[in-house]
Hints:
Order of helices and strands: EHEHHEHHEEHEEHHHHHHHEEHHHHHH
Mean pLDDT: 94
Strand order of the largest sheet: 4-6-7
Shape: elongated
CATH class of the largest domain: Mainly Alpha
Strand content: 5-15%
Oligomer: single chain
CATH superfamily of the largest domain: Fumarase/aspartase (Central domain)
Helix content: 40-55%
Amino acid sequence: MDMHTVVLGTSGATAEDVIAVARQGARVEIDAGALDALAAARAVVDALAAKPEPVYGVSTGFGALATRHIGQDLRARLQRNIVRSHAAGMGPRVERDVVRALMFLRLKTLASGRTGVRPEVAQTMADVLNAGITPVVHEYGSLGCSGDLAPLSHCALALMGEGDAEGPDGTVRPAGELLAAHGITPVELREKEGLALLNGTDGMLGMLLLALADLDRLYTSADITAALTLEALLGSHRVLAPELHAIRPHPGQGASADNMLRVLAGSALTGHFQEDEAPRVQDAYSVRCAPQVAGAGRDTLAHARTVAERELASAVDNPVVLPDGRVESNGNFHGAPVAYVLDFLAIAAADLGSICERRTDRLLDKNRSHGLPAFLADDPGVDSGLMIAQYTQAALVSEMKRLAVPASVDSIPSSAMQEDHVSMGWSAARKLRTAVDNLARIVAVELYAATRALELRTAADGAGLEAAPASRAALDALRAAGVAGAGPDRYLAPDLAAADAFVRSGELTAAVEAVTGPLA
């Protein structure tokens, strides 16, 4: 199998598959077993549709309108109408990677053979993904229950050749024009198919998987910047000893401590905290407790990943076609499991951002930095150094604290009180995306400050004390990326933007791992 092709079977997909399709443009193929399962489930739905008894989603209205029986002459119209009416989103466009993730995840559920759609509907969705066509989805419209209804409806609308979509060249055009340009025939929906295309947790799950991928990198990056700060402050590496973390065996804590210890291996700067004019017995919490805080976040990531993997293994629809041929209503579309962990991650990310900012502030305060110049300025007073970089970082942390307020504790009844408790998981996912973006910027500011502090420390020392080889590798790679070092004041925003890109791209971890080997 080509590394740029993801093959969907009845068993589902992996997180790596989702990232590959969402961000790397991987092609999607549906295997023969899944196509057979789609056909078998469709036969069940067709048999039910031929019977006089009403079946929800097949021959009835939806939500609070499910009491009306719909005759065969109106069922195609019913399925078109649910897509058109539910494509009611408003606000800014949702990012391309999110839309591709949610489309792929809906296709993954279709391929399970539990939804009752025809194979050609699933194949059309794969064709749209492979053509690089991305439906226009809007920020607001999902309550995270009965699925991410409005976002998925905008995607289904594009399959019908209606609404707007972005082409592979980035231009937004009518979806029908884009389908025609790529030789894709719009689908004509039959019984249950409209409902099956929009009744899942795919948007919130897609954003969870994307966030987990980003946070994996950011937690490793934050361990690196914490180590650089500890080193620049002449702190003690002894608090990172594995025997100290073994007696409080939280896995994430041990992993973060080990990361920091490996970054600091060979440093001549650590351990001088008792040689100051005012000797320190121990370092401040933001330095000494870095593994405990980052480690707690890592364990939260692990829990969120478990939930995501369970959801990936799920076939979320209502009603569903069971293996014994029954078609049953259910509540599996409720987004509570995903919504909770999205909120948990926003809390953990806010706390990691907070401790990064406190370390940065310590580097800039001449009364707490143990010999570094005020604000790491070239000529303090004439130069302001990184004073306002910390202001920016503080503003980002403050927003992250607001974003940490849970969305999943809210619920607004909908559909005439038929849907009287909802998860708000989509909202939790949207604010987590903002929080992850902010966290990358916060880590970048600490990196910028810590590397400048290390430069100043080693240049002024005179005793030949050198930074750790891994620290030096990080600093050299940052400079090679165009981020300037210590010196007189200059236009700072481009440097901070470049440091942010350096962190997000994984260049920081790559530079350090070239010395340390793979970090957790």
